[in-house]
Amino acid sequence: MASLFIENLKEFFALVTLPTIIGAAIYFGRKLQTLEQIEKTMQIMKDNIKIISNALVGSAGVRWDGTLLKDYSPLSLTPEGLSYLQHMDFPQIFAAHREDFLGFIASTEPKTKYDVELMAMQSVLLHADEEYMQPMKVYLYNHPKDSLPAFAKVAGIFVRDHYLEKHPEISE
Length: 172
What we know:
It contains six helices and two strands. By secondary structure, the chain is mostly helical.
């Protein structure tokens, strides 16, 4: 009799335990998925706030005299613009960290060349605080007439051109 009771008890726990474990796994899995989504959303918000903040801080100092960029459609770097970027080692920085810049643009899934241009400028602003961007900060500190937004516009055109070179399917 006791043996039958123990066997029935084992069956009962087997029937109850397995669904409980599966249910708990599903419940906690959903909670972890929700936390992951919140973390992704918070990172996007943080990045956007940083971009807005950088633009607001430096917007008064944007210099636009046409020497660094040709303002024909589309914008393009002048020799002076490329020299400006070279003073900050940006072409070398970009070569070493191109996936940071191009990956950000790709993550936004741009549809037009204009989208790429805007995201390229934002990618420069977004990565401005990275350690590898220190030469840009030193240059801007020593040249107070220049500003981060002006640099981002020029460097963004440089980044845009590299992205579009790799994505000929974006044709408009």
